[in-house]
Amino acid sequence: MPELIVALDLPDREKAVSMARQLRGVLDWCKVGLELFTLGGPRLLERLKEQGYRVFLDLKYYDIPHTVAQAVEAAAVLGVDMLTLHCQGGKRMCQAAVEARDGASDACSAPLLFGVTALTSFGTGEMPGITVHPGVFAQDLAAGAARWGLDGVVCSGHEVRDIKAASPGLRCLCPGIRPGGADAGDQRRTMTPAEAVQAGADYLVVGRPIIEAPSPAEAAAAIVEEMRAASVAPAAE
To answer: Catalytic: which of 15, 31, 60, 164?
Structure first.
């Protein structure tokens, strides 16, 4: 069954730690993004690991190959379980990241490396310099990610089937997941949890529908149950 990741997109590290504490036992993964990592730093990651979580560090590395390789090594030292880098960094950058991860010492973790394709906040015609539909662009980048040795890609649920058909071994992590009736916020290419699971997603990232719910644990449990039901239901044609 695919796994649910809660995005701890909160403007306070203590609130993030408290939220994680509320969700213990419901899910296994926490995402720490740009805002929260800037506020909490490595110690926040340690505190989440101490609670038993697997940590997804979503900083979307995009720089020269040497710099990205060093960042991956640093993340491995911190015990990060998964991290992101931009596929648009290209072959040399992505392969440098893979080599850095694979060369980490036994004392370090070996984080999964996921390449960001097209952000789910982009609609048609909104990507600077890119004229094709975001979904088509995402599929092209995913093909590169598979060749370069990344473990998976970050993509909209709408692209999962085509990406997996072209690169069966590639895992797909989908943000832009919104339960039925939830506000889409700044997302453009969204899917419900059930739709994303039936499309073949391996990881679903959900933030606001969980952390802003009156009972975050109940909201997360409902999503997990929807995912479980969808994983055993016949796939839509």
So the answer is: 60
